[in-house]
Amino acid sequence: MDSKLSEAEAYLWKYITKHMNDIPNLSIVKLSELANVSTSTIVRTMKKKGYEGFTSFKHHLKEQASSTINFAKVDRVDEEIRRSILKNEQEVVRTINMLDTGIIEDAIQKIGSSQRIILFARAFSELIAEEMKIKFQLAGKYCELHTDPNIIKTMSTRLSKSDTVIFVSLNGETEELVVAAKNCYKEEITTILITANNDSRLTDLCELSLIGFKSEISFFPDYEVRSRLPLSVIARILLDSYAIRVSRNKEDS
């Protein structure tokens, strides 16, 4: 997760996201003038966002500009719509690039050896968990989904070591999920986390963490309804990989 931005850094990042297409052609001095912030603020912001500096950030944007998305068939694409499309592409591509195949393999093996899969999710993440539950069941794996806060906390105290718990949480800080993860940790229950926050309590508590990329851009700034696209990408890759492994094992037997 990014380090917390100061007020000036948050203002700068908001400016950058609104003028993303212009940034690759600006020098750090020019950006400093346009955004009315110091060059040191720019450098600090870039580092907090995971880049070595402003030049590194510009290189990243230029690489993205070579994407295969083609707007040629649209006569006029509103800039905000274009930004929305590229935001979603960024979340998918960077999430895939961040995935560790070794962790995916470990997760598949844990799932395969478990008697039950227990899914815990809240709010909009419930939709992804519901799809996962159905796919696990179609693959012949016993799976339950719990979304009620009280049931989640209670259920987490009644698990056995033959179970595997999968948490689906965008920020990894939902209180009832954290309580459940602590209960699992105490009893040495296998836990897998699907999230977009590498620096959360759930990440610290879970045995395996599959982490995606969450864009800073939100088109619903007044509400906590950020995109769960990174979680959906991870869930689908995990389920597809598991289904492939199950099918292969059947062929070999």
From TrEMBL:
A family per Pfam: SIS
InterPro entries: Homeodomain-like_sf, HTH_RpiR, RpiR-like, RpiR-like_SIS, SIS_dom, SIS_dom_sf, WH-like_DNA-bd_sf
Listed PROSITE patterns: HTH_RPIR, SIS
Coiled coil: none
Keyword Transcription regulation: yes
Record key words, sorted: DNA-binding, Transcription, Transcription regulation
Start and end residues of each HTH rpiR-type domain: 1-68
Residue ranges constituting the SIS domain according to the UniProt record: 104-249
Protein name, per record: RpiR family transcriptional regulator
